[in-house]
Amino acid sequence: VNNTIALYYFDRFDLSITTAGLIASLFGLMNLFARAWGGMISDWSYTRWGMTGRKYAHIIITCGEGIFLVIFSRMPTLGSAIFMMIIFSLFVQSAEGSTFGIVPYVDPKNTGGVCGFVGAGGNIGAVIWGFVFLAVGNFATGYLILGFIVFAVGLTGIFTIYIDDTSHRKGSVVMDKSISGMDRTLERKSTGVEMIKGGTVTA
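The structure corresponding to this sequence follows.
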């Protein structure tokens, strides 16, 4: 979407490329806070329902992303399109935040590698969706198709609900004693000040 949204406004609403680019920048600006929202929603869900809560939060946010992309693609006026783009963007960035709320639990000993695969997957997806737009030849139709795909992919997350949590926070992954001890210490201390007082953080 980042690659095509300015061209969409340029073609659909007959704007200058400068104006279209300024409007399209609103999509990226949501990153300033919406990604953190997704992470905080994931954290809150974890405190209430454990890892299952994180999964449900991610499923709901991702499906919402698909729904609002479909709605955005059908907007007939510039004002309504801008409004729905902002709502859609909030869900996009929040889904990214909720994704990385789950990543550390996938394989605690190899979190860096998991993060790398997740990040690379986003870039690969952008290339694939670019070919979708080339095939349909119409941005609105491309967004419509992409919205349905995102919604369908979001629904597949339901299957993860039935996968047991094997992260170290549930105690099922055997880790080095010093690492697991540090983890339990961090779990008990809620603020940086408490961590410093407790000797967990040193200069």
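The two ends are 44 Å apart (CA to CA).
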